[in-house]
Design brief:
Number of helices: 18
Number of strands: 25
Mean pLDDT: 94
Shape: globular
Helix content: 25-40%
Radius of gyration: 23 Å
Length: 583
């Protein structure tokens, strides 16, 4: 962000704080079990009847058994448990703890009944779709949970026009609040031969990703997931069911495109535009090791030169990681290229490594794979390559359900997680040395991954402009990558062995030291709200930049009493960390 833009954003935020804040904000204390105001048995019975018997107490499963560790490393199992989330907590912040009651919603009427009940009885309300919130947004003891897992329908449209709109119909897909991206991809790409921009992780929920902005492997081609949103159905704090789009309640529609999940209401259905499916999806893998610090610096410099010249374009996405063992790990994805074309893009770096063979090893690890794009999420096809996917191992599991291998954070306890958008100006020849110095210095503390698909510099103009018309931080538009530095320990759900606190804190400090070193080259850019630090300073600017004042105004219009409150969500400033008290 340029200095003038930063100053403007700062003034806008200051103005929101001084002008938009209500003169009087009534103190609120949410009811808890055993407290005055907590619903009695008859009240709960009425909610159960209103939701077709789909209200039940919530408890965490017993995970102390020998099978517990295997269960909590399965994202499909975690998604099916109302008392668990996809992660077991965050060091010094939150731990997995079940709600008091859950409505297992099957339709929008169930959701509306639960929202009205929570408002009437002054309850802490939380929402779980697939449960991937790093901040524990679907996790709160003594709360009422709206669990949308069963609202997982996916419908492909040959031609869709938003309600009340005069726009020409376009191909689209509608997804229920509990749908995951794997099923959306299977319906759209495998089934219909089209593409929908979603997340890279197959088990992430459609609704949560879109509300946070949303990046996937090919966002450098198609923009954010939120940029493709055509329409949403949402239950707001007044219990009203609204259908919003560019023609109906456009402010709320805009806020749902990147303003953060669990903040403006319960989204029950989303309809997204689909795109022409590329011919090919592919991957490049390479693991290089430098035998000295100096050789590693030179390797990082050569890679940045290569990226700026050959890879900062709509064809390429995913990650490259530098670590303190002087290793450079490439795990990048591409679309629309042949294997030979993809390999040719890497030739300058491979030639450099070969010409300096005494300083490097790992050249033989270079591998390029490609597959017809229509087969990419086809479990039957992917299963033919050993190790390509991880199927849900539970008896009776859907045969098409799979996740990608290598995600060791499922069920884990986050020790630290940080992110920062890396401005494209750092790729200019005169700035590359500064970028390389910071990347190298950061890698001395902890591995630093550049997620190139999570910055839109190099994307087509249409994708950039569509992503600009969302509530997400505009820093993403001018970023070549999102840097992520993170560490998770083993699962630490109730009943399971807990991490050594001193070790966990030491590792968390290493992550923070690494991000501090990297920030030397990008001190003022924001962070991605779906993947960021629980303790992020100046989070309003970091997550939303100059969009925050508008988001606050929309929040106050649709949820003036803060029924929907999440950690570091829009309008959460006055609330306690547990979301129960507003001063």
């Amino acid at each position: 962000m340029k200095r003038r833009q930063l100053l403007g954003a700062g003034l806008a935020l200051a103005g929101a704080a001084l002008i938009d804040r209500p003169a009087v904000a009534a103190a609120v204390e949410r009811a808890r079990p055993g407290m005055p105001g907590w619903p009695n048995r008859a009240d709960w019975d009425r909610l159960g009847k209103a939701t077709g018997g789909r209200l039940s107490p919530v408890s965490a499963p017993d995970l102390a058994s020998p099978d517990g560790k295997a269960l909590v490393s399965n994202p499909f199992y975690l998604a099916d448990q109302p008392g668990l989330a996809e992660h077991s907590g965050w060091l010094g912040a939150w731990r997995s703890s079940p709600s008091a009651y859950a409505v297992t919603a099957e339709n929008v009427a169930d959701v509306a009944a639960a929202v009205r009940f929570a408002r009437t009885h002054n309850l802490r309300l939380v929402i779980k779709g697939r449960g991937h919130s790093f901040f524990g947004g679907s996790n709160a003891p003594d709360s009422l949970l709206i669990w949308t897992r069963r609202m997982d329908d996916v419908t492909v449209h040959d031609a869709f026009t938003p309600a009340g709109s005069k726009a020409a119909p376009v191909p689209a897909v509608s997804c229920g609040a509990g749908a995951m991206w794997l099923h959306a991809y299977q319906a759209v790409s495998v089934g219909a031969g089209r593409y929908v921009q979603g997340g890279g992780c197959t088990t992430v929920g459609v609704a949560g990703l879109v509300q946070g902005g949303g990046f996937g492997s090919f966002s450098k081609t198609f923009g954010t997931a939120a940029a493709s949103l055509l329409e949403a159905e949402i239950v707001t704090a007044d219990g009203k069911v609204r259908v919003v789009n560019h023609a109906q309640e456009p402010d709320l529609f805009w806020a749902l495109k990147g303003g953060g999940g669990g903040t403006f209401g319960v989204v029950t259905r989303l309809t997204l535009a689909t795109h022409e499916l590329p011919r090919v999806f592919g991957a490049v893998r390479l693991a290089l090791h430098a035998r000295s610090d100096d050789a590693f610096r030179r390797l990082l410099a050569r890679f940045i030169e290569l990226y700026a010249a050959n890879l900062c374009n709509p064809r390429w996405g995913e990650t490259v990681t530098a670590d303190f063992g002087n290793r450079l790990e490439v795990a990048m994805a591409f679309q629309g290229l042949t294997k030979d074309e993809a390999a040719a893009a890497w030739k300058p770096l491979l030639d450099f490594v070969s010409a300096n063979g005494a300083d490097y090893d790992g050249q033989a690890s270079f591998a390029v794979t490609a597959i017809p794009a229509r087969d990419y999420w086809n479990a039957d096809v992917m299963r033919r390559t050993p190790g390509a996917i991880v199927s849900d191992p539970r008896p009776g599991a859907a045969p098409g359900d799979f996740s990608w291998p290598g995600d060791e954070t499922v069920g884990g306890l986050w020790y630290a997680f940080t992110s920062a958008w890396m401005p494209a100006a750092l790729l200019e020849p005169g700035n590359q040395a500064k970028l390389v110095d910071a990347w190298f210095a950061a890698s001395r503390h902890w591995p630093v991954a550049f997620h190139f698909n999570k910055g839109l510099a190099g994307a087509p103009k249409a994708a950039v402009e569509a992503s600009r018309e969302t509530g997400a931080n505009p820093d993403m538009l001018d970023a070549f990558a999102l840097a992520i530095i993170a560490m998770a320990g083993p699962p630490a759900f109730p009943g399971m062995p807990q991490s050594n606190p001193a070790t966990a804190r030491f590792l968390a400090d290493q992550v923070q030291a690494s991000m501090k070193a990297l920030r030397a080259c990008a001190p003022d850019t924001g962070a991605y709200v779906n993947e960021c630090d629980y303790f992020q300073p100046d989070w309003q600017r970091a997550f939303w930049g100059a969009n925050y004042p508008r988001l606050v105004r929309i929040k106050r219009r649709y949820d003036p009493d803060g029924l929907f409150t999440v950690h570091h969500g829009v309008g959460s400033e006055a609330w306690s960390a547990d979301g129960f008290t507003r001063a």
